[in-house]
Amino acid sequence: AAGSMEAADGEKAGGGRNGHAEGPAAERGGGGRLKGCQDFLRRNVLVLLTVSGVVAGVVLGAAVRGAELGPAQVAYLAFPGELLLRMLRMVILPLVVCSLVSGAASLDTRSLGRLGGIAIAYFLGTTLLASGLAVALGFIVRPGAGASALNAPGLGLPGAVPTSKETVDSFLDLVRNLFPSNLVAAAFQTYATEYKMLLRNTTSGNVTWEKVPVGTEIEGMNILGLVLFALVLGVALKKLGQEGEDLIRFFNSFNEATMVLVSWIMWYVPIGIMFLVGSKIVEMEDIVLLVTSLGKYIFASILGHFIHGGIILPLIYFAATRQNPYRFLLGLITPFATAFATCSSSATLPSMIKCIEENNGVDKRISRFILPIGATVNMDGAAIFQCMATVFIAQLNNVELNPGQIFTILVTATASSVGAAGVPAGGVLTIAIILEAIGLPTNDLSLILAVDWIVDRTTTVVNVEGDALGAGILNYLNEKANKEKEQELKEVNVEAVANSKSEGETSPLVTHKNQVSNMSSPADPESKESVL
């Protein structure tokens, strides 16, 4: 009875103690939730500010649009956004060169070759899929069929049509730019072929005009040549061994310092994006005419970008890694917003490298090796845009494309997107190559330029998304290969230890040592010394 009473008293006391403890526990629960919200805001404050900047830019542009600003006032409104673009372009050169040199030097030659081969296969495969999707959508939606109001005044931009270039010269220029004759000049100039018309007298006495290609240097960073040089330099420094370590450390330090600059610039991104989007909305002349005349083309292009970026690329990532691709993409909202506002893959590169390392945990060696190459070579969104524009112009001119021309479009778009400049409207220049390859007129490119500022935003987002998912796939494959190596080493070590034990048991020396140690007394220090 006494025991049961004591147990009851203990239960009452325990219940009292638990009752008193419920209040602080509830307080701790509320405080934990508050702390969790604070941690979430602290981690994602830049993402929230960037998205708010896009929304504020739309509101600002819609509010100022009715004021009928002149070109000078629009330029003043766009000034903060122009500063953002200049800062991002400022860090592209050191970021690309230093990250590729340090990335190539940190990977061994076998891993570099394996990862490089997988990356090239991924880039070519996804770009070819994007081109095929665009051509199929073009035949289904038929954006150029029945477009009657396209010759209305105010749609075309006749002065902005790029000059047509021969397809052979375009690919020769691509190869020439891979091997720049001057590395310093490659930082701000690119080789391009232009044409001069020369008067020739023929043997029959007639006078003919002959188009002669002439090489010139145009303004713009030759990023292809810099990428190839940085990769080869990194491999060469790795081959030097001890002698090249000082220079590798220099490029690593330079790279880390550049990333610190990028982290500072990222805090200015929301302000710059707000004024970029706002000024672009103010610049629009007649949005109603554009949408009614080119609405099917805009819809088909954005639909292609949505299908490729929202379904096909995540499926490829899931098939390769068996991980949720949308969780991976959720950590990259800031670079996607930057791509949407700037329309430049190269300008998005600094924020992409920072976010993919910090938010998604991608290895620095992988991200800084593959993302600069992807920003130059991998242009899935540009391939969709170019193929859709080509099908649109063919339908506009009532040209039925045969299978040979469709194959030419796919191959040319995949190849020419490699050399497409990672700058706003860079893909328009490569459409002229495709049109020349299949024999279509380039005069209608002014219509593409009229709506390029709309389509180019989703184009750039898909471009950088393809780069990011490619880096995620390579990071997963690299981690998997490293784990397999570690497992093999562990198995080898276990086998070696087991073999040494079995040898020890059969060895007469060890048996003799055990016998001596057994015979000797533990209290006798001299016998211990003799055994040792």
Automatic annotation (TrEMBL):
GO terms for biological process: L-glutamate transmembrane transport. One of its GO terms (molecular function) is symporter activity. Keywords: Acetylation, Glycoprotein, Membrane, Phosphoprotein, Symport, Transmembrane, Transmembrane helix, Transport. It is a multi-pass membrane protein. The chain crosses the membrane at residues 45-67, 87-107, 119-141, 220-237, 258-277, 297-316, 328-349. Residues 1-31, 496-532 are annotated as: Disordered. It is found in: Melanosome; Membrane. Belongs to the dicarboxylate/amino acid:cation symporter (DAACS) (TC 2.A.23) family. This is Amino acid transporter. The lineage of its organism: Eukaryota, Metazoa, Chordata, Craniata, Vertebrata.
